Amino acid sequence: MRSWTSALLAPVLLLAALATPAPSAAGDPDWVFYTSDKTRYTSPWFAGAHRIMIPFGCTRAPYYSPDPRCADGRGFHHGIDVAMPCGTTLRNRYWARVVGNDALGPAYGATPVVLRNRKRGFDLVIGHTRRVRVEPGDRLKPGTVFARASDDGAPDGCHLHFEKRSVGGGLATATWPRRLLRLQAAG
Ligand SMILES: [Zn+2]
Question: Ligand 1 centre and the CA of 106: distance in Å?
Answer without folding.
Answer: 12
